[in-house]
Write a structure and sequence with these properties.
By secondary structure, the protein is mostly helical. Helix content is about 65%, strand content about 10%. It has a two-stranded antiparallel ribbon with strand order 1-2. It starts with a helix and ends with a helix.
């Protein structure tokens, strides 16, 4: 029996640990899941929007997501929390300039 998901999904090392993505692309499994599950895009719409993907890629990403949903959701929440903490700790140059102008 052929493992179809392995033909379409690769695990790459990245900041914060390994991340599953569609093989040969920079599109993460979590991105496909968000587009489909949270934004309501159909598999065909995802392929139309991202023509480097095939329907098989999209369905493999969704299958991988559902097989590893808790882990992927936990990592996405951790990433979002880290991002928010960075925003709070480090203001942008634009924000600093706006604050300086407002205080003048």
């Amino acid at each position: 029996m052929v493992d179809v998901i392995q033909d379409h999904i690769e695990i790459v090392e990245g900041a914060g640990g390994p991340k599953p993505r569609v093989a040969g692309t920079r599109i993460r499994v979590v991105d496909v899941a968000i587009w489909h599950e949270k934004q309501g895009m159909s598999a065909a719409q995802i392929v139309q929007e991202y023509p480097q993907l095939t329907l098989a890629d999209v369905y493999a990403a969704l299958a991988y997501y559902w097989d590893h949903r808790d882990e992927i959701e936990r990592r996405a929440a951790d990433d979002a929390a880290f991002e928010e903490e960075c925003r709070r700790q480090y203001s942008s140059l634009l924000q600093e300039k706006l604050r300086q102008r407002a205080s003048q």
